[in-house]
Amino acid sequence: DAQNAFKVRLSIKTALGDNAYAWDANEEYLFKAMVAFAMRRYSSKSTTQISDVLLCNVTDRVSFWFVVTDSSQNVTTVPGSVVEAAIRMNRNRINSAFLLSDKTLQFLKITSTLSPPVEPSTPVWLIIFGVVLCLIVAGIVFLVVAGIQQHKKKNKESTEREDLEEKGEVTVTVENGIPCEALDLKAGHVNGVFAADDERFTSL
């Protein structure tokens, strides 16, 4: 619990189950290398070596403390704020190296970084474009089908009218789009208004 030191807790068994690996000197070396990598990547001027990362109080349940030293300066340890920033910047790379996550590889004094948002396999604009295209196609199909049905209906009415005219049952003419029955000129047509007046006079 020294100044600029950080405690780490690993839950390897919880994360990997039967595929869990043993924490040994090789894993400790990899951890030191990843911290040195994070420090170098965070600051291009950093000359951190693996030997500059010190581990202590390692427990069987895999928890330990580590501190980063700086042998190039009179300062014994690197400021904790710098180490924290480097760890946060490279958290995903460190997690991947040990096949763990923020919940199973915990830096107790360093807050977990937010995982990058999951992007859908299909872009949103492509989904919207597909929906709009489907609506347009559906509208075109509806108009075509409606036009065909209306055309068939007109053809059917025209055929029926022609059949009736051929049989002489009715004669229909169309004026201004309105069907009208034609007058039978031979038989004449009686206007009821004048029929009553004709009956009052004696025929000559």
TrEMBL record:
Bilayer topology annotation: Single-pass type I membrane protein
Main location as per UniProt: membrane
Compartment(s) where it occurs, according to its Swiss-Prot or TrEMBL record: Cell membrane
Protein name (record): TMM27 protein
One Pfam family of this chain: Collectrin
Transmembrane annotation, as ranges: 124-148
PANTHER family: COLLECTRIN
Swiss-Prot/TrEMBL GO biological process terms: positive regulation of amino acid transport
Any one cellular-component term (Gene Ontology): plasma membrane
Keywords (A to Z) from UniProt: Cell membrane, Glycoprotein, Membrane, Phosphoprotein, Signal, Transmembrane, Transmembrane helix
Residue span, Collectrin-like domain: 2-204
